Amino acid sequence: MRLRLTTMTAVAALALSVTQAPAADALPSAPAKAPVAKAAAKVPAPVNRIGWAYVKSTTPNKGYVFKKTSLPIGRKGKAVYRSFLRMNLSSAMDATKITSAKLRLPVLSPNPCKKNKNFAVQVFITSGLTKSVTWKKQPKGKRWQWLKVKCSGKRLEVNVTKAAQKAVDAGRDYISFGLRADSEKDPRKFMTFSRNAQLLIKATFEEDPGGGNDPGPDPSVHVPVNVGNATAAGQGCGVGAGRPTIATPYVTFGGTTSDADGGFLGLRAEWRKGADGAVAGANSKLRFTDPNEAVGFTVTTGEVLTDGVYQWRVQGFDDVKGGAWTDWCEFEVTLPVVPPVAG
């Protein structure tokens, strides 16, 4: 077996975690893997995920989720801050063994490597992290180890090998952390981190006897469900004589989907003029969702449609892959005739 290195750059996305999770939050265990033989020729490509959160004691009923700002911890003025991250493990899901996993946290201020600076951070494995996180509703966690400063530019580093292996063994493609200052009374311990944390993993991979890569856990566990209530211009699926007629050059598609994992979710639409026309497409914005939370989305055509019969379909997608497409439906564009301007 050969060691492979894959760097997972994640600005972590929020969801359920790895250890100490209540039974209600547990995900299904990974399916049994096929027999393996020799070292694999390729390591799965890492997948970036987006998301983070912090909470503040002076606004106890508000959470700061997916804000384009830094992640603070510790006391500043009258407020105490704590931050949370979810990191991606999908590239290690079919690993034989994780030999090393390091969480790297870029520090914005103060510089932990400056002379006579001696900071430490409490790192937690968290459970039940959702978009409704607030100071009053923080995820449960177990103090797992102190993160002592290991200078490398402006970066802190902690070994999370055992926790990452435990997550993969349980069939989870993510690991969640909580961060807090080692003293929440001393304002000198206040720190801010970049949301661009990294998880660096070394792992061994193998091939099955037939020469193909081990498929690992069933990917269908981590994709959105089929889209429900699919519409075009507010009207449902129809074909032939049942297709709706639309009198505008732009069409908005809609639908509802969910994901057993939660996380970031969106709607993708495709359309073409006639059965043989070139396929065009557009995506909605991603929204963060709780596990199995059904969410409605809309997405509008980015091109001007002309008179004629169009086919369309939609699918749900997350930050890993897309779900199943709906069947092709139809609508007919009949634009109003513009009267000539009198000369």
Automatic annotation (TrEMBL):
It comes from the Bacteria. The keyword Secreted applies. InterPro entries: CBM96. The lineage of its organism: Bacteria, Bacillati, Actinomycetota, Actinomycetes, Streptosporangiales. Residues 1-23 form the signal peptide. Keywords: Secreted, Signal. It is found in: Secreted. Residues 53-196 form the Carbohydrate-binding module family domain. This is Carbohydrate-binding module family 96 domain-containing protein. The keyword Electron transport does not apply.
